[in-house]
């Protein structure tokens, strides 16, 4: 351990997405290659001597306790735990949640050290993994509110690879067998449904961790919600969601030293007639078992919506992934998304 292939794979994956800024401490980690990376893991992160590093991924993460703060993290999967090596700015981002983090080392702030906090989720504490729509993100759930993390990969390949690696690692865990049979027979599976609602697809791993995938109803619910935002004038049968993607909206900051831009996480939904931007809650739904009350905000909140027929042109940047797209719409007088779309476009 480790094999040449694994060393090469981890080195290739150790790249920070170019559009996201991270602290000096995480830049240091991203600069490590091959053996140096494995030695760094064993010397600074691993909690047990004989655990093996199996996968590395850079991703934005959200915590259940701080749902409004998206932070960049280096996610390390070993045979014992999932480690989230976090940008040190996260500790100061949400002051009222400061008790969530251990502040013992705060006196080192002005020294030459660059601190990172590392959040550890032991595989033995893992209960379920919820995969988001179109594999754009996944949520890992442990036994309490402190142990719920969403990884916003914004990339189906990264999500799929991590889930495969996680399943492989969980297969190595020696857990006591469940007292009830995991494979239910046909009659108990389909006969005891007293609700008319179809459950999400669940795959119960041999380690008894649930992997939960969205079903078709979730797309149906989303289509209904979108139709509702369009003032219900659209025939739901004819409304097709063509694209669902987690993206960033670019807001240019005027008057700054460099003409910088901030990235606002948004969910982009394209239908056959409209383009929508939503603020989505990626961490609170579906509700964890211990939740006493529903989340304070809806899962989807409409931010902006435009008709495709008002789209004038699309400007494409020439840089490599991630691609920047600028949508230019006609400046139609009194245009309002919520107005009656059946009105004559050129009428009074």
CATH top-level class of the largest domain: Mainly Beta
Contiguous runs where pLDDT drops below 50 for at least 5 residues: 191-198, 338-343
CATH topology of the largest domain: PH-domain like
Terminal residue distance:
74 Å
Oligomer: single chain
- Approximately how much helix is present in the residues? 10-25%
Write down the domain tally: 2
Strand content: 25-35%
Organism: Glareola pratincola (Collared pratincole)
Domain PLEKHM2 PH: 114-178
Subcellular location: Cytoplasm
InterPro entries: PH_domain-containing_M2, PH_NISCH_C, PH_PLEKHM2
List the helices and strands and how they pair.
Layout: H1 4-13, H2 24-30, H3 34-45, E1 53-63, E2 66-78, E3 81-86, H4 90-93, E4 117-122, E5 128-131, E6 138-141, E7 148-152, H5 156-170, H6 186-191, E8 201-204, E9 210-213, H7 216-229, E10 241-252, E11 261-271, E12 274-280, E13 300-307, E14 311-316, E15 325-329
Parallel strand pairs: 5-9
Antiparallel strand pairs: 1-2, 1-7, 2-3, 3-4, 5-6, 6-7, 8-9, 10-11, 11-12, 12-13, 14-15
Description:
The chain is of the alpha+beta class. It folds into 2 domains: 4-173, Pleckstrin-homology domain (PH domain)/Phosphotyrosine-binding domain (PTB) (PH-domain like, Roll), CATH 2.30.29.30; 217-329, PH-domain like, CATH 2.30.29. The chain has 7 helices and 15 strands. The chain has helices at 4-13, 24-30, 34-45, 90-93, 156-170, 186-191, 216-229, and strands at residues 53-63, 66-78, 81-86, 117-122, 128-131, 138-141, 148-152, 201-204, 210-213, 241-252, 261-271, 274-280, 300-307, 311-316, 325-329. The strands form 3 sheets. Strands 4-3-2-1-7-6-5-9-8 form a 9-stranded mixed sheet. Strands 10-11-12-13 form a 4-stranded antiparallel sheet. The longest helix has 15 residues, at 156-170. The radius of gyration is 23 Å and the shape is globular. Residues 191-198 and 338-343 have low confidence and may be disordered. One of its GO terms (molecular function) is kinesin binding.
């Amino acid at each position: 351990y480790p094999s040449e292939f694994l060393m090469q794979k981890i080195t290739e994956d150790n790249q920070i997405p170019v559009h996201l800024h991270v602290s000096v401490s995480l830049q240091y980690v991203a600069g490590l290659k091959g053996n140096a990376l494995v030695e760094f893991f064993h010397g600074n992160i691993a909690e047990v001597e004989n655990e093996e590093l199996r996968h590395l991924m850079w991703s934005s993460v959200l915590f259940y306790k701080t749902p409004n703060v998206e932070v960049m993290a280096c996610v390390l999967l070993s045979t014992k735990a999932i480690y989230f090596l976090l940008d040190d700015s996260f500790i100061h981002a949400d002051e009222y949640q400061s008790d969530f983090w251990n502040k013992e080392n705060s006196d080192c702030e002005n020294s030459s050290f660059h601190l990172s906090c590392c959040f550890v989720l032991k595989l033995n504490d893992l209960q379920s993994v919820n995969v988001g729509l179109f594999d754009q993100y996944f949520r890992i759930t442990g036994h309490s509110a402190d142990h719920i993390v969403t990884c916003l990969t914004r990339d189906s390949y990264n999500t799929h690879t991590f889930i495969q690696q996680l399943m492989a690692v969980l297969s190595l865990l020696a857990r006591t067998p469940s007292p009830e049979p995991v494979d239910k027979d046909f009659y108990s599976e389909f006969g005891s449904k007293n609700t008319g609602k179809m459950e999400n697809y669940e795959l119960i791993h041999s380690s008894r961790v649930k992997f939960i995938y969205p079903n078709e109803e979730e797309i149906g619910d989303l289509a209904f919600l979108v139709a509702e935002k369009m003032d219900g004038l659209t025939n739901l049968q004819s409304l097709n969601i063509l694209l669902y993607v987690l993206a960033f909206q670019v807001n240019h900051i005027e008057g700054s030293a460099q003409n910088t831009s901030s990235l606002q996480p948004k969910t982009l939904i394209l239908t056959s007639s409209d383009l929508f931007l939503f603020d989505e809650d990626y961490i609170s739904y579906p509700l964890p078992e211990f939740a006493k009350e529903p989340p304070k905000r809806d899962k989807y909140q409409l931010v902006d919506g435009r008709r495709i027929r008002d789209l004038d042109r699309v400007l494409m940047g020439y840089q490599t992934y991630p691609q920047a797209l600028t949508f230019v719409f006609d400046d139609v007088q009194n245009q309002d998304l919520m107005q009656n779309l059946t009105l004559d476009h050129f009428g009074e």
